[in-house]
Amino acid sequence: MIAISDREFILLTEYIYKYCGINLTKKKTLVESRLYGFLMQKGFADFSSFYDYLLNDESGDVVCAVIDRISTNHTFFMREIQHFNYFRDQVLPQVKAAVKNRDLRIWSAGCSSGEEPYTLAMIIADYFGQEKKLWDSSILATDISSRALNKAREGIYNDEEISSLPAPWKRRYFRNLGPDQSMVTNKLKEDIVFRKFNLMDKTFPFKKKFQVIFCRNVMIYFDSTTKQDLIDRFYDCTDKGGYLFIGQSESLNRDESKYQYIMPAVYRKE
Length: 270
Description:
The chain has 10 helices and 10 strands. It is α/β, with parallel strands linked by helices.
């Protein structure tokens, strides 16, 4: 196995931190083990030559391949279900009453393999029913991982992956592909716009603000400075009265955040 020296580890982790905010300073074994196969595949004898190759790659493909290998991208349908219940029972009625132009703007930031935005789309379709065609309700779903986005766009899941979904949703929003595989219907896919996006970009290129932002279990990779900077940018692109949902294992510093605490991992812009 190719070993990574302390110097190589520092150079590589500093580059990854600057690019996407992921803090790997205490993950030397993880970095070494997860990138070993990639280095072997590309024919590198050591991490120094790989680092030089990374610096000279103008396409950005190499750093994305690295991030794909070091990030977990673990998610599942109905994860932290209390968030989805609150979204259905509290947020959507408030938005429906407040928004006069029927423009519903939702961002699933760090959407991974698509389970979160597809769940939101199914909730919206159920909530609005026939009235949904009168609304612009497309969900923006972004992630930095090309591998995760490809799976999300494909929308194919095995029986175990969709086992937590209600039976009516499986019948209505999925079509069977054969043994142990189902695909999200094209109609539901049309409700989601998948885009590659780096949350470390200093400015967010959105012309309109969002009523709801989901960014769950993403900031666990960030240090406090990176996290607070991201929260401030989320706040700036949240509509007044809009919501931010984060992961249950995450929290905001209430002394520093402008968001108002609503319930665990749910915040609102007043």
